[in-house]
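Researcher: I'd like a structural prediction for the single chain below. Treat it as a standalone chain; there are no partners to consider.
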Amino acid sequence: MASLPAANPLANVLRKVLPKRLSGPLVRWIFALGTLASFTLFRRWPKVVKASLRRDLTRRLPDGYDVDTHFTPPYDPWDQRLCVVPDGDLFTAIRRGEVSVVTDHIESFTETGITLRSGETLEADIVVTATGLELLFAGGMTLRVDGEDVNLPDKLTYKGMMLEDVPNLALAIGYTNASWTLKCELTCQYVPGAQPPAHRRAAAGDAAQPRFDDLAGAPVGSDLRLHHPGVRSIPPTGHPVPLAGTRTICVTIAR
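Model: Treating it as a single chain, here is the predicted structure.
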């Protein structure tokens, strides 16, 4: 895990001193090249980066905290995805005693929470799971064109969103070594007639990509449509759950 500012100070300065038509593309290139540079650094000198990340975690966590058990994985950075903690808020919550970390194997889920292999039981009202990079391409669908099955591994992809010889189909697949939603939002630029909401467009300039802010607060099961009538969203799965006072477990399942 790495702590980074929630708002990039350099990007904020550029937006203030440059016109929108210049600041938008420039900020995007700064983020893109910065991500590429950091990924290259992490992969080329993993031991140096691991030591640096560990020092930062030790500084942010309470004295004597077991960093080796809870925040030192057995693999190098970017062997699996790197978790970014905005403004170190997770570590601040740990220091305040508001969050506890348990590293163990899950034996089973129960009606009241999770039973661990060690025998400990974690009571929970909400369980949030994260499963890493194991994806089911196209949701496991079997594609057919003119009555013949499409063998997906034999097909090329165009801009990560369209398949060779498969008409009228578009996919949204995020980055594996950057923000997942960033790539999905770039894909949305190819939706005919897609326009970002006015406040997003004003903040990021002409190069802003569409955002789906209009989904927030929509009633469950609504037939929601985005900026183009031919694109339908997936409706929310349930009403918002107030987190205050609930026992919430965020589970990361690592290989």
